[in-house]
Amino acid sequence: MRLLYSAYHMRTPNPRKAAPLLAFGLALLAPSLAALAAGSTMSAMVVSGGRLTMQTVPMPEPGAGEVRIAIRAAGVNPADWKMLRMTGPAGAAPILGLDASGIIDAVGPSVSGWRRGEAVIALTRPPHGSYAQYAVVPVDFIARKPRTLTFEQAAGIPVAAITAWRSLIDVAHVTRGQRVLIDGGAGGVGSAAVQIAKSRGAYVIATASARHFRFLRSIGADEVIDYTTGPFEQKVKDVDVVVDTVSVEDGIRAMRTLKPGGMLVWLVGQVPADRCAAARIRCAKPGSSGGQPATPYLDQVVALANAGRYRVSVEHALPLSDAAEAWRLSKQGHTRGKLILRIAARP
Fold this sequence. Notes:
Blueprint: H1 2-9, H2 18-38, E1 41-48, E2 51-58, E3 66-76, H3 78-83, H4 87-90, E4 99-107, E5 119-123, E6 134-138, E7 142-144, H5 151-154, H6 158-171, E8 179-183, H7 188-199, E9 203-208, H8 213-218, E10 223-226, E11 239-244, H9 248-254, E12 258-266, H10 273-278, E13 282-284, H11 295-306, E14 314-319, H12 323-332, E15 338-342
Parallel strand pairs: 8-9, 8-11, 9-10, 11-12, 12-13, 14-15
Antiparallel strand pairs: 1-2, 3-4, 3-6, 3-15, 4-5, 5-7
Helix pairs in contact: 1-2, 6-7
């Protein structure tokens, strides 16, 4: 609008010289003006000036192979606020958020097997993330919402469950009867890992503070270790697989719990390779999914949820406008299960 104002008011002996600049400004604003005229706008938490701000932005349209989701809830992950440091490549004013649940409200060209009105969960991709009333998502990044979970609970599935599944199944190849230690079992990824390991027939041990014991046993932990009462690595031995969701320091300490040839899957920081070799164990990190489809992972977890073998604990559900507060709670690192943002439907 500042550009249009300058063009309209520029002082020149020949007003026709302002016409090209005015036309150029109108062309730039045409998409936004059309969206406003059609009412096709939405509310979103946008990164602006290094902060989250609620803005009204154009509603996205699904392209080939995509659906548009009217989002009911968005999960909060540490990756969201860590991504704030990398928002340059994501665009000038990206919308963050990776986890979503909601209703398909539009289907793009060449999409089959999905229709409007279906309840889904999705792994969204900034700069068109889930901190918004709508998001467009490729169909190979969505799955049908579990019948057994609310939208708020279902929004806690994608990142945590995929990370846990890849750690335990793709990397560690957990099998029945193995002893699996989940360090940080009460968090989003930790609680997902407890349930996925249990579904594979493993004997599951989790570390947590005492207030989380009942919760962890309710989701399948066979044994829970209170890390606040002494070194956890002195309380368990002969473990086949450790999934460390806490810190590099915890990962190094957890090496002492593994049997020779066991595997440490670390999700935080960088575990020194020489320490792994000295402990005679294998160390691995799931790493980036490289953009591979999320649907096969999501479908597996949805099946567990529908069978009553996977659930999501929502510690706090906040309105979208309180996303900054959700980030503050996330940074404290003591959440049981997930933090969720509730997203109101567009009037």
